[in-house]
Amino acid sequence: MVGFTKKEHQFLSELGLTPRNPGSFVNGIWKGNGPVVSSSNPTNNQVIAEVVEASLEDYEEGMKACAEATRIWMQIPAPKRGEIVRQIGDALRGKLHELGRLVSLEMGKILPEGIGEVQEIIDMCDYAVGLSRQLNGSIIPSERPNHMMMEVWNPLGIVGVITAFNFPCAVLGWNACIALVCGNSVVWKGAPTTPLITIAMTKIIASVLEKNNLPGAIFTAFCGGAEVGQALAADTRVPLVSFTGSTKVGLAVQQKVNERFGKSLLELSGNNAIIVMDDADIQLAVRSVLFAAVGTAGQRCTTCRRLLLHESIYQTVLDQLIEVYKQVRIGDPLEKGTLLGPLHTSASKENFVKGIQAIKSQGGKIVTGGAVIESEGNFVQPTIVEISPSAPVVKEELFGPVLYVMKFQTLKEAIEINNSVPQGLSSSIFTRRPEIIFKWIGPVGSDCGIVNVNIPTNGAEIGGAFGGEKATGGGREAGSDSWKQYMRRATCTINYGSELPLAQGINFG
């Protein structure tokens, strides 16, 4: 196994990983009775380690234990639950750099992004600790004498979290940190292609539960494919399933969960646009577009995929952008100075090639890039394309470093182009004019869940609710009042008198 022979990969052992790893954390025990899969390094497509995935029998055993553990966890006071999450955050701090390196090695994003992703979970833990003392209900004036009416929030029970390869642990944090302080147990199915991250993260969380003499089943984890995900979606013991991934699969998950009257929280595809107005700070815009379009090799849901340039500054911005694209250093994501790592899998590279063919067939002009880089890994060139906003390929999400550039004349036209795609996750405009800014964030502006001004489409902060509209799924994770999705609301009316107002005048003998 490559990862255990190279000196620079010795950190894998420090995370408790071995050449072959059981991929199910069931009732506090590691096991695996499903298929054996290999985790590969996208830089060279060599095997890092093997994982024994969960079988459906493992799944059922884990869910039974989780249901029992939930009864214990939900009765622990919320601030005490917050203390456990605080300890999880501290345990993650102790392995920040090792986990960050693992994210870069297994997923392919550059090391600063890998470390930043793990830091995001740590930040979510801190956020959740404070939240654990603020799960407030409300008192509502009753229209009846000697009555009190109030809203009470209680845990749902078990929250299922299905995460994607591109943010293999941060998305878990957005969901699990909040779900845990709200009194829910968590069942995590990590992405099939990043099982080592699922195992390493779970080992850290499990150690905190064990140290506090809590059932390990409070946090249950499965490495596995569609079979496990389908079981989770259909499981009536799971009131809420949070799914991050493609619109196609998300729709199938939603339909399966709806069939049993469960709730789904969907974070699906993005097709995000940056608009650059004629009064914009062009240098700021160019840096932002580069960061948003090339980061994570274009494999973020918030990646900038469409660049809308006012006709008066179109060529100026495009020329500067081409120049900075030429300076992007492509290579091993673990090496210092690399700005663009590989795509995650060889299938991703094939999709890139197919996408470029579709672009050309629909009248797109490749301005720079557009080719696969010959290597053992999954490297492609960062690509800029001039294309019509009405081209069918522009309406789709090509998960790679491909940026569509198009021209507009008026703000109205730019907003219409921004809103013309099925997805509605993130958007941004670069301008100095207040009247444009307030129209952009208002009811006839962007139709996305994230509406930025003078910053990129990516880089959302945990304090705000993260998510999008339309085919992005409508879910919201992390900050604001997103915690309410992980709890059930009860309206409670209490009669502290001796009369029942509706029964006055009736003799009950």
Automatic annotation (TrEMBL):
Documented EC number(s): 1.2.1.3
SUPFAM superfamilies to which the protein is assigned, alphabetical: ALDH-like (SSF53720)
A Pfam family matched in the record: Aldedh
Aldehyde dehydrogenase domain mapped to chain residues: 37-489
Catalytic activity: an aldehyde + NAD(+) + H2O = a carboxylate + NADH + 2 H(+)
Listed GO MF terms: aldehyde dehydrogenase (NAD+) activity
Keywords: NAD, Oxidoreductase
Enzyme class per UniProt: oxidoreductase
Active site location: 267
InterPro entries (alphabetical): Ald_DH/histidinol_DH, Ald_DH_C, Ald_DH_CS_GLU, Ald_DH_N, Aldehyde_DH_dom, ALDH7A1-like
PROSITE patterns, alphabetized: ALDEHYDE_DEHYDR_GLU (PS00687)
Subunit structure: Homotetramer.
Family (UniProt): Belongs to the aldehyde dehydrogenase family.
Name assigned to this protein: aldehyde dehydrogenase (NAD(+))
UniProt source species: Rhynchospora breviuscula
